[in-house]
Automatic annotation (TrEMBL):
This is RanBP2-type domain-containing protein. Keywords: Metal-binding, Zinc, Zinc-finger. Gene3D superfamilies: Zinc finger, RanBP2-type. SUPFAM superfamilies: Ran binding protein zinc finger-like (SSF90209). GO terms for biological process: positive regulation of DNA-templated transcription. It comes from Eptatretus burgeri. One of its GO terms (molecular function) is zinc ion binding. GO terms for cellular component: nucleus. Residues 1-20 are annotated as: Disordered. Residues 18-48 form the RanBP2-type domain.
Length: 51
């Protein structure tokens, strides 16, 4: 009885760790570093809407 482990739910991952570190540019979809305020490819600001 002492060594039996019940199978449990897998731990939830946060959105940042599940998607990888960083943010996706809404203009060109490039994945940028988390600390960047502008996209490394198209220079769009973080959080810029596409419309």
């Amino acid at each position: 009885m002492g060594d039996y482990k019940r199978p449990g739910r897998p731990k939830r991952q946060s959105k940042t760790s599940a998607a990888g570190a960083g943010w996706e540019c809404s203009v060109c979809t490039f994945r940028n570093n988390q600390g960047a305020y502008t996209c490394a490819v198209c220079d769009a600001r973080k959080g810029t809407a596409t419309r």
